[in-house]
Amino acid sequence: MGQKSEPAAFEQVYVVGLDDDGRPLGARFTILRDSIVSAAMDITNCRVLIRQPAEVCAVARKLPVGHVFGSGKMVTLFLPNIRRELYVAILAAERLAAQQDNLRVAGALLHTIH
């Protein structure tokens, strides 16, 4: 049996944040599960990026693979420390993608109104 291939980058879940000392943390998860998202929400100063455009995925795929400990309703995420440059680059790419998406939606609305 061969090893399963990783899903496409846009199918992955990216979690980035800061620990209590302000150091950046981050990881990518290959499967979207409610437990991963809810555990990530328990971490303060944390962002969960789901179904991101290619520009964000290109930067975020540099994140290490995260680990989920536990099962059922009680899970804990392991988010390793990452370089601050990577953390800043991911947030900048996500912010730019959100702005482009907002402009695209606004342009579509203008075309439908007139």
What does this structure look like?
With 114 residues, the chain is α+β, with helices and mostly antiparallel strands. It has one domain (9-113). Helix content is 39%, strand content 24%. The protein is built from 3 helices and 5 strands. It has helices at 34-41, 54-60, 84-113, and strands spanning 13-18, 24-29, 46-50, 67-71, 74-78. Strands 2-1-3 form a 3-stranded antiparallel sheet, with helices on both faces. A two-stranded antiparallel ribbon has the order 4-5. A hairpin with a 5-residue loop joins β1 and β2. α2 packs antiparallel against α3 (84-113). The longest helix is centred in the last third of the chain and has 30 residues, at 84-113. It is globular. The model has no long low-confidence stretch (mean pLDDT 82).
List the helices and strands and how they pair.
Blueprint: E1 13-18, E2 24-29, H1 34-41, E3 46-50, H2 54-60, E4 67-71, E5 74-78, H3 84-113
Antiparallel strand pairs: 1-2, 1-3, 4-5
Widest sheet: strand ordering: 2-1-3
**Which structural class should the secondary elements be placed in?**
alpha+beta
| Percent range for β-strand residues | 15-25%
Number of helices: 3
